[in-house]
Amino acid sequence: MAEIRPNIDEGIDRKDLTRLQQRFLMVNNKRIERANCTLSSRQQLVLRLLPLLLHTNHPLLPGYVSGTTPAGFTTYEPKPELVQEAQGLARSFVYRPARGYNQNQLYSLFLMGSSGSIGYVEQSDMDFWLCYDPTLDPQSVAELRRKCDDLQVWAASMGAEIHIFLIDPQQFASGEKEGQLTSDDCGTTQHYLLLDEFYRTAVWLAGRTPIWWYVPVYEEHRYAEYCKILLDKRFVREHEVVDLGHLARIPAGEFVSAGMWQLYKGIEAPYKSLLKLLLIEVYASEYPTVDCISLQFKQAIYQDTINFDELDAYVMLYRRLAKYLTERGENERLELMRRCFYLKVEKKLTQGLTHRNKSWQRTLLEKLTQQWQWSEKELQHLDGRDQWKTMEVQVERRLLVSELMYSYRFLSQLAQRLQVVSAINARDLAILGRRLYAAFERKADKVEFINPGIAPNLAEDTLTLVECFADDRSEHYWALYPGSVTQQNWRYHTPLKRMRELMALLVWAHFNAVVDAGTRISVLTSTSDLRERELYGIFQSLRQNFALPLRKVSETELLSQSYPVRVLLLVNVGVDPLPLLSQHNVHIATEQTNVLDFSGRRENLVLTLDHIVINNWNEMLVRRFSGESALLDCLAALLNEYAKTTVIPDVQVECFCRNRARAISQRVSDVVIQAFMHARNYPSSRYLLQVQDYFQILELKDGVASQHTMPSLASLETYLGRNQAECLPWQIDEYSLQGHALKYILPLAQPHKVQVYYRIQGEEAEIHVLDERNSLFKQRLAFTTEQALLMPLQRFFTALQYRRFATEVIEQPSFELPYQLEYYRLWPDGTYAVQRVEPAQPALLGQDTFYSVQAIISSAGAVTLYCNHQEFTELEYGDKLYEKVAGTILAMRRSAEPYPCYITDLDLSRRLPAEELQTVRFLKKKAELERRLNTAMQAFV
């Protein structure tokens, strides 16, 4: 038959409209026939009965709500055999046409989507659009919704998953739609693209036919005017058609919103989404004049080029995508698109079937693959997808991820080019970008996820874990091989994965489900202490702590920064901390159970830490820490991650090594808990941990951690004596600084207090001073009486307080009041370990107890000393200054005995800025001047 080209201005032959309707219905009926071929007999019954069940209200039929529920399709008259099938559900049912006010309140029923096409598979659901009278009141619509819900439940009992969507034609045609309109729909701004899908896939089942059928493609641009003429001149009758709108123009914003939705779905199920993403790319490339597939479908009907295979909704989709990619010369993308199409159809062509048993879908797919010139080998590869393992999946993943990332960049650039980035789109693009980043982006320490919906199961029955070396032993790595390999032949096999770090490889195997509870793993190693028992313990711990599949990540989480949610610390993976004992099968008995300073040999048994974390974006990261500072380095990394959020991660510590595993895991767990609790209570603080003779300090400033290692007690004291910008409270690990004075002193420090701790040791006393910023000053002095020991210090501090109060407070009104002085005595005396601290109070200052010795340091560093208010300057005495002052002091004493001389006042204010005028600086300078004076005094003896 010839092409039909109606001209509304010259008049339309009603016979042409009748022929057009017959052509559409011929294709429609073929699609129903093909749909039934893919459905079971019970599903076919649902498809046949659904129009009748909606058309009538009968108390014994499925879906009945009430006799007033909207019902009745225009021009619908069920066939007698269909009524008989309905009577199989309700014997008393007698069909009577709807009468009364609810007559013909339903406009149309359509089946849309893949049903009746090559893309429909047995597991697919069916989406129905039920168009109703726009004048229905909300209560009637709610009752109709209830009936549809009940019918969905009935269909499910028949083995059919259906979704019935209620459509107000007027509202929809105007571009307003609420909620989901397909089970695949995001429910946002995708009106025209959804309408395009509807027109090219919809199967009409009952009621009014679309008026869109009767508008030629070349008249689409004046669709509303054309439809008005059709109705006004009664070329078509209003009660016979339903108007859902046109496709003359698709707004640019829809490409972005629809693409984002498909890209979101494609992260977990890429094959189906990539087809739709490509279609959006095709349409966007033609903007603003988009030749939709639905318009091509309508044009074929008008031209009477009706080939049922070529008018198949999915075949038309394929042809359109193939044409676009071929013209662009993108052959790799074309092949990927064909694989997506083939896998969507789910017909395995390599499974032998006789011609008599072949479905129409299989026959059509064979025809297509012959056109693609696919070999038997290629078909076998795709048909074996449910048996794909790691190697096949990794190759496919590269192509799929590349395509998904290309689509994201395309959408981002499209949004900018067409200037359609609204606030909502910008937010959605940002969320989508982060979701893609979390799923696919490579970064340091991140475990790669290789199976985004590519293969159903990657688990291997048997694996071999091999510690590998290059021939010259310059390279060391670990590799996981499928099956069983030996030490002699592993080089001749291809591993599933090779990585430098052992734990990173094991986490990769778990995260990608390459290893499950049934996998048998053997270990080949030459230098590692890893054994199969430890390996199985590690995998069991991974399954317990990071169970698969992972939870869904919310949009709220993606809008925030990533932070750790769950942490697993594995200690000494593949490392025996006491190898000599293992070699001789000896067990050591010791009272020293601290595994960081173990036994009389003072060994550190925490040699490596593998830090495995999953964050709120579902990213899995692995870091390895080794060496003497492994525990502190790991703690710093943990706390720095924790600093980004107020959420405290769940931290588990495990150890499976051969010696002291339980004690090691418990000790590390205690340290981690203690450090975390301290960091939570004091975001700016310091934590001290002793490992053997080393002192390791974790310093927190506003939650950000840094670490310092001191190789000896002397270097620790030097570190503690540095100037500090602020007073940082201390947390001392329970096993650290055992019996040492610092263990008791440091935790007592408080801001704006200067604390003096002294301990008598025979003829000497050990002085520790913690200043207002928690800096330490230590000094050993001769001891006669407590008053003689403390009075010089108290007099000096009193002078400093007076000077600060008299100058700095006045000049800087916001400066805090002078610090408080506190004195403590450490017990017991002597050289035994410190056991307790007691407050002390020195006697009141006497008027003539000491001569005043005042020191003034100029901005140039020149020293001026005042002895009982007599001035002595370097300008006058040069390098004899200290001798002159010492002689003057001795001359004023009643006794010639050379007991120590003390500086009673010191001014550094012109030499240092105010923020550096910290008490510890004065104490250090005081000690230096006193040393010079007392050395000079010895010359007079």
From TrEMBL:
Annotated Adenylate cyclase class-I N-terminal domain ranges read 17-213
Family matches, as InterPro entries = Adenylate_cyclase_1, Adenylate_cyclase_1_N
* Highest rank taxon of the organism: Bacteria
Q: What is the name of this protein? A: Class I adenylate cyclase
